[in-house]
Amino acid sequence: AFGDLLSGWGWGEVERTQRCEPHCEASRLYEAAAAQGSPAGQQRLARLRLQEGDAVAAERLLRAAAAQGSAVAQTDLAELLMSEGFEEEAISWFERADELRPISTK
Predict the structure, then answer these.
(1) Considering the entire predicted model, what is its pTM?
(2) Which of 5, 78, 87, 106 could form a disulfide with 93 if both were Cys (CB 3.0 to 4.6 A apart)?
(3) What's the confidence (pLDDT) of residue 26?
């Protein structure tokens, strides 16, 4: 599945290029994974959409991934909502993400 492919395609790879054009390899992989319902694909594609200035598409993708329990997507969604002034909903997503993160044993 495309979700497995994504584990080898870290966000850092895309950041190093500064911007992913709509038809680059990462974008194609993320789009395919997102279409299959992969939370990781949805979250990573959302980051690309934000980079391209499409906050509406990014929010839709992040909501889908967050609803599936992705703590990373929940955090990204919370940050996006906070930046748009939706503090109450953002805090709710931050809290949900925090509940999913493992407790440190240190």
Answers:
(1) 0.74
(2) 78
(3) 83
